[in-house]
Design goal:
CATH superfamily: Cyclophilin-like
Number of strands: 12
Order of helices and strands: HEEHEEEEEEHHHEHEEE
Helix content: 25-40%
Shape: globular
Largest sheet: 8 strands, antiparallel
Strand order of the largest sheet: 3-4-8-6-9-2-1-12
Oligomer: single chain
């Protein structure tokens, strides 16, 4: 059991959760005031004068256009802009694709990236709707990797109960109490408890407009509160869908336990940052 726990703590830094119950990279807390008044991606999303946006050109697939939200995630947005402008993403790949969940890319497999990590930025108006652009984090730290939510299935949270989440919080805290507070086991279990605590907070603050949009466009609300959402796709959904439908095989980058590696490389030719005029 201990070996399994430690493996979870030390797992691949790119891992993000497939479901709430199996996350090994949840956020210990939000770094941005979630009550801040930011329009975010909960309403109608369109490019307006002065907006920053990214055009991601993917070889043999086309362009995905993403509106960026520097007000909601200032550190994350600027980090992505700087990396894109430096050409960092040119030639990188989408190395992990999971249908009805997300497509993940931006990993530097050379291990030579010298990018300072930074904490998670969350806001109640930035949600994991279909097309959301987010950072894949490692135990609460963002760096270069991103993912785009590709789940189009309707999510109905009109009568969602948080009772199960409460049980998970209590369960992980009870496990943690069995270990010394300086131990890795204690850190792991409290980390998981905090994941559910963050998720509960975001579910409880899900207003009617957010619920309606999840029901209309789909997404992965189980990730809310624990990952930085800093952009929203506005064009190129057909490209995202094509990427999400590729054939995949066992992914060594995920410890060989997940069938998510595209059989044919999906290459990012370039990412251009623009100002909408």
């Amino acid at each position: 059991m201990v070996k399994k726990i430690l493996a979870g703590i030390l797992c691949a830094a790119t891992m993000i959760t497939l479901s709430v119950g199996c996350s090994d990279s949840a956020a210990p807390g939000a770094s941005t005031d979630p009550s801040a008044k930011i329009t975010g991606n909960t309403g109608e999303v369109k490019l307006e004068k002065g907006d920053k946006y990214a055009v991601m050109t993917i070889k043999d697939y086309g362009d995905i256009t993403i509106k960026l939200y520097p007000d909601a995630a200032p550190k994350g947005t600027q980090n992505f802009i700087d990396l894109a402008n430096s050409g960092f993403y040119n030639g990188k790949t989408f190395h992990r694709v999971v249908a009805d969940f997300m497509a993940q890319g931006g990993k530097d497999f050379t291990g030579k990236t010298n990018v300072e990590s930074f904490g998670i930025e969350t806001n109640y108006n930035m949600r994991h709707f279909y097309g959301a652009f987010c950072y894949a984090n490692a135990l609460g730290n963002n760096s270069t990797e991103f993912y785009i939510v590709n789940n189009k299935k309707s999510q109905d949270y009109s009568s969602f109960s948080t009772a199960r989440i409460d049980n998970n919080i209590q369960g992980y805290e009870d496990y943690a109490k069995q270990y010394d507070k300086n131990s890795q086991e204690y850190t792991y279990y409290m980390f998981q408890a905090n994941y559910y605590r963050n998720l509960k907070q975001f579910i409880e603050n899900m207003d009617d407009a957010t619920k309606a949009k999840y029901k209309e466009v789909g997404g992965t609300p189980s990730l809310d509160g624990n990952y930085t959402v800093f952009g929203q796709t506005v064009d190129g959904f057909d490209v995202l869908d094509k990427i999400s439908a590729v054939e995949v095989e066992t992914n060594d980058a995920m410890g060989g336990k997940e069938v998510s590696k595209p059989k044919t490389e999906i290459i990012i030719e370039k990412v251009e940052i623009k100002d909408y005029e």
